[in-house]
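#lab-general

N.A. 3:47 PM
ok so I finally got the sequence cleaned up, no stray characters, all 480 residues accounted for. can someone with queue access submit it? mine expired

B.Y. 3:52 PM
send it over

N.A. 3:53 PM
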Amino acid sequence: MKKPNAKIYFIAAVAAFLGSCSQNETTEVDSKAESQKFEIINVTHHDGKPFSTGISSSSSTGKYVDNPGGGVMMQAFYWDVPSGGTWWNTVSGKVAAWGNAGIGSIWLPPASKAQNGAFSMGYDPTDYFDFGDYNQNGSIETRFGSKTELVNLITNAHTENLKVYADIVINHNSGGQSEANPFTGTSTWTNFTGIASGKFPRNYNDFYKNSYGNNDEGAFGGFPDLCHAAPNVQNWLWLRTDGVGKYYKNTMKFDGWRFDYVKGFAPWVIHDWNANVGGFSVGEYWDANVNTLESWANSANSSVFDFACYYKMNDAFDGNNLALLNDDMMWKRNPYKAVTFVTNHDTDEISNKLLAYSYILTHEGYPTIFYRDYEEWLDKNKLNNLIWIHNNKATGTTSILYSDNDEYVARRNGYNGNPGLVVYINNSDSWQERWIQTNWANTQIKDFTGNSTWFPTTQADKWVKIQCPPKGYSVWSINQ
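B.Y. 4:20 PM
back already:
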């Protein structure tokens, strides 16, 4: 029996190896060609500047300052936070860690005394100037604490150079006394002349229906509906130097406003408040119609919560159709007036929250982190990583590089020397790889989330293959 011919085996092995290489190269070319078929969508067209709250980001304390990607807001409460007057102290104890993590502002719940006193979340306001220092509505302190504790919280936040936004409820009031109302021919709970602070007294003349009309754009829950056309209401809300807006800003030192239920009154109200009081402004206009959101924001001269983005994310991530992220949203219309969010105290529908946070913290607008997501429900380290990525890498205009049911890839195009990033979101159950076009030629990149261990180098034509873990995300930028 003859011995096997070693030379023949060697030739066969080499041929097999070369064939395998050729096949891999063909597969790589085919994969790149497939990605090249997707027409890149250049979503935004502006000079690349980040979102600005209009408030100086400089720091005399050496603490947090807005980074290249702009700021991140923390919603510093949830519905039915613990009662007992401890919440202001709870939040105060967290602002240093939040600032160190890259949070730039906190949004507080309505701070003044409401009808249910120590048990109210503040959305049924009685006395705008009782911050927990008057014995009224069954308690001295509010649910959240005393005025002294609130002032200490604001002071501590400012020491960390965090901005503080007040939740302002000016559509309706609650907790007034009954009075005969000649406009309704009945008794109404509209007598607020005996409030403990003695500031902003009001009666039936200041609520609909009255001499100014039967109603405005909307009423809420049967509460007395404030009439912003009434001179007494305008004076006390935003015109007087000792009125609500200017007292909150100049004496209490709030930096801005989250306006509740702005569907309930005309946008000129917020426009006039902003013109007379100043500070950052965002309205809660609960509507998924991006045309409506844009129209309100322009008329009110205010930012608006991007409910269009919220509902598209819900449909995309939970409905397993990431191509829906190509659809219209407020941040795409005007990234400088869009406040994005994943959860808030009123609505919590998105299941794949980390994917949603990876979206809003790499895209344009002013992203908001929900307290319970950060402190209780999700992986804080992963959120801190995304906050860092937002602040340091999420710069410039946005281009969508690829999308289908399971995969979404977008590029931030960089600004003022910052290279930007590429975010890859994968909603499938397996690792995915995709060729994409970057803005970087012959440059090594890495995944700043640490989810991928690849360190690929872009080709001369700026194309590169990246990967993404199952039900996860990766964020790529220059390795520096």
